[in-house]
Amino acid sequence: MESTFELLRQIEKENDIKKIPAEKYDELAEEIRRFLLEHISVTGGHLGSNLGAVELTMALHLSLQLPKDKIIWDVGHQSYTHKLLTGRREGFDNLRKYGGMSGFPKRKESDCDCFDTGHSSTSISAGLGMVMARDIRKEKHTIVSVIGDGSLTGGMAYEAMNNASKLDTNFIIILNDNNMSISENVGGVSQYLNNIRTAETYLDIKEGVYNRLMRSKTGEGLVETIRRAKSSVKHLVIPGMFFEDMGLTYLGPVDGHDVPAMLKVMKEAKRCKGAVIVHVMTQKGKGYAPAERHPARFHGAEPFEIETGLPKKTREKANYTDVFSTVMCKLGQRNDKIVAITAAMPDGTGLKRFHNMFPERFFDVGIAEEHAVTFAAGLAAGGMKPIVAIYSSFLQRAYDQILHDVCIQNMPVIFAIDRAGLVGSDGETHQGIFDLSFLSSIPNMQIMAPKNKWELSDMLKFAVDFEGPIAIRYPRGTAYDGLSEYREAISFGKSEMIYEERNTALLAVGSMVQTAVGVRDALKAEGMDCSLVNARFVKPIDEEMIRRLAKEHDLLVTMEENVLSGGFGEKVMEFVRAENLPCKVMPIALPDEYVEHGNVDILKKEVGIDEESIVERICSSQDRPKRREK
Q1: Which residues of 176-214 are buried (b: 16+ CB within 10 A; e: fewer)?
Q2: What's the CA angle centered on 350, arms 346 and 351, to 5 degrees?
Q3: Given 31, 244, 369, 560, which residue is catalytic?
Q4: Closest Cα to residue 170, out of 128, 136, 126?
């Protein structure tokens, strides 16, 4: 496979692309796309965004001198071509695998990755900071922030642009406009960019006048005069001129798949004194028909067949997102006050079916989690029952809004927290391992976690009837269908006893109940009695159950897929200590550190929350209880 990439093999380190003749740029772009397809179809990864950014990335590398010059990638999932052009070709064999190359920019991976990213709308802020650091240190290099049009729905981008408007030194912002975030873009920003894209009158005037002047004897002198006045021309032809009104110089739109055109506009951008935004139009999934037709499906792709674009493995069982999707539709039919909100993830959160059934009660606010939460609070204040479906990792971005706008007012907002716990290949920025901790610290917030797919359904129904803020967190992946015979009605703040014996008690939260079943079986095989409790509620914890367990158990083992600090285990330990109960607590949780990318099963073993590691810890612990005679 590798031998077919003749041009790519010539790129062994950063800046080697400059050795490629200009007439070979199209061929190189084709090789890069073929390379990405062949590798991502095996490993999985972010395909559509990378196929769309090939020529854009080539032009940046041709225009800049890395690592002296800096590129900050917003989100960063479109950085695969950047990694190829900086000598990391061999790393794609282990892309997103444990111990392998990350799917996002990582400073520890290369000097050409100047800033770690993973969430959206951050690149302009980071780039502006690097510009100021450059100027303070009196250095001379170019800083480029690349941001997608989907990320422009995030308010942080506007805070940064507002600040950048004051610059009197060069700072280049590339707006990679493919009309997509993950799903199709929504809102006023998308409409504004559509207006620019279709303003052919302006583009024709600009190109025609420029070309005619440059052919005349006096043309070169006039071009600079016109450049100074062109803001007025744009105001005549393109309504709003939002970016220039903010104080940013606007260049474009330019075809992001035309390398010579990109090189030309980059040369102009580097001459600008101040912040300049280069509007680049690209196509997500470019060059691969299935990804062009279904860009959302190929945003984050599992291994697939190149010929058809179909996944290599088909899902036989429903995952938790599927269950949530089905229950939401049923709840929507029964209760016309229920509304659903997502932040650019209708497919990922399972709300697409709800949208199709109840379009007037579905709201995709774009990549704007802070707005989503306060918007939900407003809906609740207006008498509706909002359900906000957001990935755990992204909900972190709305902490202040949860605290200030929802919980202080005790608004009945339901948070459906998808991808809670370890999510695997996307790594540190996407692991949902902090939500129990940061939500537990907020007064009025209640938190539940289902043990299986039926309990997720029951918890959603319970939450709809609950008067106040409440969160349900559930993991990525196949929904557990075991313990179906245990479906005791949910009562606020109460856990569920599944197996009651003596000596050792396992108190498991959500996804860890399935693991606890295996741990109990292994302990039983060792001749140890073991009780198993489904915690159900992380806040409030079931104090009555803990007192009950302490009477017949020497060791309480708490199990959660969350960091230890601020989690369920800490709450149980604190209660046992405060009540001076006659038992010890062994918390099984994630270490208080960031967990890198890799297969979830490997990660669980690495951090010690897999079945085997837990059994070994219980059996070898000095705190292991002595068996009592019955």
Answers
A1: bbbbbbbbebbeebbebbeebbebeebbeebeebeeebe
A2: 55
A3: 369
A4: 128
- 34 catalytic residue (yes or no): no
- Residue 468 one-letter amino acid: G
Residue 407: half-sphere exposure toward Cβ, Cα within 13 Å: 20
Q: At what angle do helices 54-63 and 259-271 cross, to 10 degrees?
A: 50
Of the listed ranges 7-16, 194-203, 382-391, the one predicted with least confidence: 194-203
Q: How far apart are CA 471 and CA 2, in angstroms?
A: 48
The radius of gyration of the chain's CA atoms, rounded to the nearest angstrom, is 27
Q: Are 442 and 567 in contact (CB under 8 A)?
A: no
Q: Which of 70, 83, 234, 284 is catalytic?
A: 284
Query: Per DSSP, which regions of 476-593 are E strands?
Result: 496-499, 503-508, 530-534, 537-539, 553-563, 584-590
Report the 10 Å Cβ neighbour count for 461. 15
Q: What is the residue whose two structure tokens read 């539940």?
A: 448
User: CB neighbours of 200 closer than 8 A, spacing ≥ 6?
Assistant: none
User: CA 350, CA 358: separation in Å to the nearest integer?
Assistant: 14
Burial class (CB in 10 A: 0-12, 13-18, 19+), 494: middle
Helix (H, G, I), strand (E, B) or coil at 274: coil
Q: Which of 88, 106, 397, 476 is catalytic?
A: 397
The reply to whether 230 belongs to the active site is no
pLDDT in tens, 154-185: 999 999 999 999 999 999 999 999 875 445 55
Helix segments in 216-295, DSSP class H? 219-237, 242-245, 259-271, 289-293
Residue among 390, 394, 492, 396 nearest 446 (CA): 492
Residue 192 has pLDDT above 80, yes or no: no
CA separation for the pair 308, 468 (Å, rounded) = 47
- CB contact at 8 A, 568 and 538: yes
Please say whether the beta carbons of 301 and 352 come within 8 A: no
CA–CA separation, 559 and 201 (whole Å): 63
Residues 396-450: pLDDT tens digits?
A: 999 999 999 999 999 999 999 999 999 999 999 999 999 999 999 999 999 999 9
pLDDT in tens, 25-76: 999 999 999 999 999 999 999 999 999 999 999 999 999 999 999 999 999 9
For 138-244, strand residue ranges (E) read 143-148, 171-177
Residue 397 appears among annotated catalytic residues: yes
State the average pLDDT over residues 231-250: 65
Task: Name the pLDDT band for 208 (thresholds 50, 70, 90).
Answer: low
All residues at 6 or more sequence positions from 521 whose CB lies less than 8 Å from its CB, including other chains:
none
Burial of 113 (0-12, 13-18, 19+ CB in 10 A): buried
How far apart are alpha carbons 223 and 211 in whole angstroms?
Answer: 10
